[in-house]
Structures are given as C-alpha cells and as structure tokens.
UniProtKB/TrEMBL annotation:
PANTHER family associated with the record: CONSERVED PROTEIN
CC terms in the record's Gene Ontology section: plasma membrane
InterPro entries given in the database record: DinB/YfiT-like (IPR034660), Maleyloyr_isom (IPR017517), MDMPI_metal-binding (IPR024344)
A single GO molecular function term of this UniProt record: metal ion binding
Span of domain Mycothiol-dependent maleylpyruvate isomerase metal-binding: 12-129
Name of the protein: Uncharacterized protein (TIGR03083 family)
Taxonomic superkingdom: Bacteria
Amino acid sequence: MRHAEFIAVTEDAATGFAMLLGSADLETPVPTCPGWSLAQLAEHLGGVHRWARAQLLAGGAQVDEQAADAPLSDQQALAAWFREGATALVETLRELPEDAPCWALYPPARASTWAKRQALETTLHLWDATEALGIAVPIPSRIAAAGVAEVANDMYPRQVALGRMPSLDAVVVFRLKDAAGVEDATARPVIRLRAVGELGEASAGAPTPADATLEVSAQDALLLLWKRRDLATVDARLAGSRDTLERVLSHPLVP
C-alpha cells in the first residue's frame, strides 16, 4: 500500500470510530481490550493519535506528548475530542513529505512509518469497537495483510530487541488465502515468522522449512497475531505442528 492510501485508511477508520462514539453506549465493555469500556478505548486511541503527531512534528527527537484529558462522561464532547486529534494527525501526515525524518517505533524513521502504523492501529481499534457492539466491520484484506506483515517484519523484531520475548526457535508461515493479489512493499500473500538476530534484523540465508503453515484469511491472521482470536475461532487449515503454532502465538509478538 502507498503512503497516501495509509493516510486515507486512517481518516476513514477514525471517521467511523467517531460516528460510533456519537451514538453508542460509552460504558459498553470491549472484550478484545480487557478491562476497557468504549470510552476508555476512545481515550487510548485519541491519545495515540496525538502522541504519533507529536513524533511527526519533533524532527527526529522522541517526545512524550501528554494528551489533554478526554471528556469521558460527555458523549458528544468525547466524540469531538477524538475527531479533533484524528483530524490533526491526518492533516499533519498529508502536509509532511513521506520521507520527513522523525522518531518512529521501528525503521525507517520517517513519516511514512507513522502513516502505516496509525492506519493499522485505527483500523484494529475500529474493529474492536464494532465487535463489542455486535456489528463487527470486516477489515479489508489489503490492510489486514499489511498488518500481518507489520507484525512479522516490524513489531515482533522490536519485541525481541526490547527484551520482551526471545527470538523464535521455529518457523511459522501464514498463507493469506484472500490476499493472492497483494504483493507490494507493505504486504505479501505469504508471510513468515522466524528467528531474528540480536538487533531485530531478519536472519540471513535460505528460507528454513516451516514447522507450521496456516492457510487463513488476512483478517483472521491479523486477529490471531494481535490476540483478538484463537485457533479455535478462525476458519483455517493447518499443515505441520499445532503445538508449535500455539507456542509461537502465545508469545508477546506485539506490544
């Protein structure tokens, strides 16, 4: 997916989320974000949008932006607060060159990384909200495939580099059955999880045979990796070791 597409995804998902906030019960529990209500999910996502924008504007320095307190008890005010942060983020992403330098969670340290990260963050949390309300909106296969690739290539190596989990000692392959036409720098129809080097770089050499291969939709793969689903609740076909796959999925592959 291109930089402008990720920005458009963020804008569309944020618009949908804001619409929910204007009409849904803010006390609705969000089971896929344990312990949070819809209002608390909005506070989190609105804060992330403001924090990401602060990184974009800092010119390469990491900043700890403290978002203004969200008005959790006022439905229309919360929706307006959320919309304000999302709009500012989208406008900043559109104003900056995609290669503008900035601190980022993972390489490359430029604005395009935040466009991708915020598209995926906002899309996943929109799904969380709609799932909680019983109206789950499907995640388009192209954005879901980009999200699976982000976990394998960016989030998981970062977790290893930060000491939050060990490098994997097995190889798991995801074959995304609805992403056959997806093949670009951000996503592929076949995505591998494998060992990483000490600095989070992908191991060199010829591909190691897979210990487990899961044929699954891009959305279900993304939800598995972000622990929104488990193997018993997705439509998938497994070749290889189920025990190995479950062990890999049990790791904190994402923050």
